[in-house]
């Protein structure tokens, strides 16, 4: 007879009580009650993140429509999920989810930048997590492929709204109407 071993999942409250080594340069997320260790972002990741954040911040500030945040910042989606997206946008109409502890609720837009070790997590696990929690728009940025995909939540499922590579195109946002980003500017060396 086989025995089943139950693995106890951590709650966000338990996760927040953990102490990590101060010399560890990793970040930690809680996804479906399991701790996920993330390495510090590469310089390429940082360049792309900085450029996207700059474009979003400029647009959001000019339009006075909300706030843009970047990692590391805790986003508490529910009792078992505390994530740290690369970049996120919270509209002014939902500003109450911005607290001293982090973002306690669902951002309208989330950007994840794929690293060699995070591909499956960003493309599958986090995409489904964001979809289930109602993140209205999800940008998936792949530095190696020089590709950005923008997914829009439609009837509780993500559909591809916009996609572009460094060679061709611009992406658009449904959450931030009027925002158009030339992909070439994000991946330039």
Q: What does the model show?
A:
With 189 residues, the chain is α+β, with helices and mostly antiparallel strands. The chain is built from four helices and 14 strands. It has one domain (41-187): tt1808, chain A (Alpha-Beta Complex), CATH 3.90.1570. The strands form four sheets. It has a six-stranded mixed sheet with strand order 3-6-9-10-11-12, with helices on both faces. β10 (137-142) and β11 form a beta hairpin. It is globular. 30% of the residues are buried.
CATH topology: tt1808, chain A
For the biggest β-sheet, the strand order reads 3-6-9-10-11-12
SS element count, helices: 4
Report the radius of gyration as a whole number of Å. 17 Å
Reading the helices and strands in chain order gives HEEHEEEEEEEHEEEEEH
Strand residue content:
25-35%
Query: What is the CATH level 1 assignment?
Result: Alpha Beta
What is the domain tally? 1
Helix coverage percent of residues?
10-25%
What's the N-to-C terminus distance? 59 Å
Low-confidence stretches: none
Biggest sheet, open or closed, and with what strands and sense?
6 strands, mixed
**Shape designation:** globular
Count of β-strands: 14
Mean pLDDT: 91
SSE class: alpha+beta
Q: Tell me the CATH architecture.
A: Alpha-Beta Complex
What is the CATH homology-level superfamily?
Answer: tt1808, chain A
Describe the secondary-structure layout.
Elements: H1 12-17, E1 27-31, E2 34-38, H2 43-63, E3 66-70, E4 75-78, E5 81-83, E6 87-91, E7 98-99, E8 102-104, E9 109-113, H3 119-133, E10 137-142, E11 147-154, E12 157-165, E13 170-172, E14 180-182, H4 183-187
Organism: Fibrisoma montanum
GO molecular function: endonuclease activity
Protein name: Uma2 family endonuclease
């Amino acid at each position: 007879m086989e025995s089943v071993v139950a693995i106890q999942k951590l709650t966000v409250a338990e996760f927040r009580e953990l102490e990590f080594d101060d010399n560890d340069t990793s970040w930690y997320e809680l996804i479906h009650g399991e701790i996920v260790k993330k390495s510090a972002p590469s310089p390429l990741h940082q360049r792309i993140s900085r450029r996207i954040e700059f474009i979003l911040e400029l647009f959001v500030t000019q339009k006075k429509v909300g706030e843009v945040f970047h990692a590391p910042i805790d986003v508490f989606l529910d009792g078992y999920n505390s994530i740290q997206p690369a970049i996120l946008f919270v509209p002014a109409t939902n500003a109450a989810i911005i607290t001293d502890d982090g973002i306690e609720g669902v951002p309208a837009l989330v950007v994840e930048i794929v690293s060699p070790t995070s591909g499956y997590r960003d493309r599958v696990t986090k995409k489904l997590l964001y979809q289930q929690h109602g993140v209205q728009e999800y940008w998936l940025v792949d530095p190696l492929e020089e590709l950005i995909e923008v997914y829009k939540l439609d009837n509780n499922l993500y559909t591809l709204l916009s996609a572009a590579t460094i060679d061709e195109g611009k992406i658009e946002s449904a959450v931030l109407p009027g925002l158009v980003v030339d992909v070439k500017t994000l991946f330039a060396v």
